[in-house]
Design goal:
The complex is a heterodimer. Chain A is mainly alpha-helical. Chain A has 9 helices and 7 strands. Chain A is globular, with a radius of gyration of 18 Å. By secondary structure, chain B is mainly beta. Chain B has no helices and 8 strands. Chain B is elongated. Classes of the chains: A mainly alpha, B mainly beta. At the A-B interface, helix 3 of A face strand 1 of B.
């Protein structure tokens, strides 16, 4: 009887195929770490971002609430991420503490708000193709893990859907905050594939597809992930 | 940039036990990691941390490389009088860090 119940639950799960945040695949300890602002180490970057924002951005901008829900966006045919938007004004290096602090601070103001990017299906065509394309010596596409096998195990890890709503996020593996681009590169590294450079078209297209796919999920920055 | 977040209740009654939590931004380099070009990243970890409450030392910790980056510490303190909580720490590069907060105690 119990077996059938589990089977029914699994089928229901697959039928729904709804978006699930990476948080749902994280361990109890990690979820607790993310939930507490006093313990979440990502809040250090949010604080640093608040200071930088006051120094460098506050003369024009006031509240950035809701801004992060709309990025990455397509502006004049180009894909623009939150990182690119900050770098347009302040030339911080990719993955520098300053850039991560500012993007985390801005994204944090939209915490809990659903991602709401105005991207059309046509915009994400290239990214979608990249998502389903096999790559690297492992000869796997993103979809093989994150679409066909999420919820199952790869070694000790539970495969997530690869949703981007927590980024920039604090990853225990990195021992610091990191962007969505760094996380994508980490997957590519695991596949022994070529790593697309930060801010490259290949990276941006994939990022855009992931965000389009995740529309509706709440922003969690600063999320904590393994 | 030495950055820390201290969390404790804003107010406490005299004699009450107060939970103090602190997260410090620090890489806590073990000295065993190597940079992409193969050169060793030198060890740099916070090795001592002291907390003073109204000038009196109430908590001291010895940290080492076994502790993850951005260390989190938690301890309890008996509220006696309103006063400052001063944190001070030192790492292997002899760089000092400090953070301060205030505790209001009502009788």
């Amino acid at each position: 009887m119990r077996k059938y119940l589990i089977l029914a639950a699994l089928i229901a799960c697959a039928a729904e195929a709804q978006n699930r945040s990476g948080l749902e695949f994280a361990s109890e300890e990690i979820r607790r770490l993310q939930a507490s602002d006093a313990e979440n180490p990502g809040m250090l970057w949010v604080d640093q971002g608040a200071k930088l924002f006051a120094q460098k951005c506050a003369s024009c901008h006031v509240s950035m609430k809701g801004v992060a829900t709309r990025y990455p966006a397509v502006e004049d045919g180009r894909i623009v991420t939150l990182e690119a938007k900050v770098r347009h004004k302040q030339a911080f290096a990719y993955e520098s503490d300053e850039l991560l602090a500012l993007t985390s601070y801005v994204a944090h103001q939209s915490r809990g708000m659903p991602m709401n990017t105005k991207i059309s299906e046509k915009d994400v065509e290239k990214g979608k193709a990249a998502y389903y394309r096999r790559r690297g010596q492992m000869n796997l596409a993103c979809a093989h893990c994150h679409e066909q096998n999420w919820g199952k195990h790869l070694g000790a890890e539970t495969l997530s859907q690869g949703q981007p709503n927590g980024y920039p996020a604090y990853r225990l593996e990195w021992q610091k905050m990191g962007s969505l681009e760094r996380r994508i590169r980490a997957c590519m590294f695991g596949l022994h594939a070529e790593l697309p450079p930060y801010g490259s078209d290949a990276m941006l297209e994939l990022e855009l597809f992931l965000v389009w796919r995740a529309n509706g999920l709440p922003i969690e920055t600063p999320a904590v992930r393994r | 940039m030495a950055l820390a977040r201290i969390d404790l209740p804003h107010e406490a009654r005299r004699g009450e036990l107060v939970e103090v939590r602190i997260v410090i931004q620090h890489p806590m380099e073990t000295g065993f990691r190597r940079a992409p070009q193969g050169e060793r990243v030198p060890r740099n970890a916070i090795h001592s941390l002291v907390c003073r409450y109204s000038g009196t030392e109430v908590f001291r910790a010895t940290l080492s490389t076994g502790i993850a980056a951005n260390p989190f510490l938690r301890f309890f303190l008996r509220a006696t009088q309103s006063g400052d909580l001063d944190f001070w720490w030192l790492d292997d590069d002899e760089v000092q860090g400090a953070a301060k907060t205030h505790l209001v105690v009502s009788s």
